[in-house]
Amino acid sequence: MKFLLPLACLLLSTNIALAEEVRYVSDSFSITMRTGQGTTHKIVKSLKTGTKLELVEVSEQGYSKVRTQGGAEGWVLSRYLLNQPVAKDSLAIAERKIASLKNQTKELNKQLKSLSSNSSTLQKDRNQLEKTSTKLKKELDKIKEIAANQIALNSENKTLKEQVLSQKREMQSIQQENMALQDRSARDWFLIGAGVFIVGIIMGIVIPNLRFRRKQSWNSL
Fold first, then answer.
1. How high is the pLDDT of residue 73?
2. pTM to 2 decimal places
3. Would 22 be classed as within a structural domain?
4. What is the pLDDT at residue 156?
């Protein structure tokens, strides 16, 4: 009993380790999977070349207990099992991988062409945007120049308006002075006329008296 417990633990650990391994039926024939170790046991299943099996246990009698992907279990001769798929299956797998890689390469080439085309289009768009930006910058500079000229013109117009207004005021002042002068001249002429009229009246009165006195003085002589 002392020796059976360690042996059982060893076998259990061996079975657990073997359960994680995979074996394949060797190339170019089929083998039988039986319920026990030996040809006297019942055949469970006939396994074709390349069948993938899960290794459950290995015995010292040259047999291996395996499990199919469908869940069937049985014993087969260990010498008919391989660690790798048979050459035909390996070749098929390799061909599928090559075909997949070719498809991926083809797809990548398409993507590369598409990216190259997009890059060319983006470059053209960039060049067009740069041209448009340059054109807009020139137009903006022109607008700024026009705006500056407009500001200068507005300032000049304002100055001219102020000058015109000042001249109008000066003209109004001159017109008022002319009117005042005209009024003064008319008044002066009126006074002169009145003075001449009065002088004429006086002379009309005085001169006859002078003549009359002279005549009397001459008569008295």
1. 93
2. 0.34
3. yes
4. 81
| CB-based contact 63:73 (threshold 8 Å) | no
Spell out a b/e string for 163-190, using b for 16 or more CB atoms within 10 Å of the CB, else e. eeeeeeeeeeeeeeeeeeeeeeeeeeee
Distance, in Å, from the CA atom of 57 to the CA atom of 10, rounded to the nearest integer, reads 12
How far is CA 125 from its chain centroid? 13
Q: How many CA atoms lie within 13 A of 69 on its CB side?
A: 7
Rounded CA separation 63/54 (Å): 14
Q: Is 22 exposed, middle or buried (0-12, 13-18, 19+ CB in 10 A)?
A: middle
Q: Give me the CATH number covering residue 23.
A: 2.30.30.40
Residues of the chain with pLDDT under 50: 1-8, 10-12, 14, 16-17
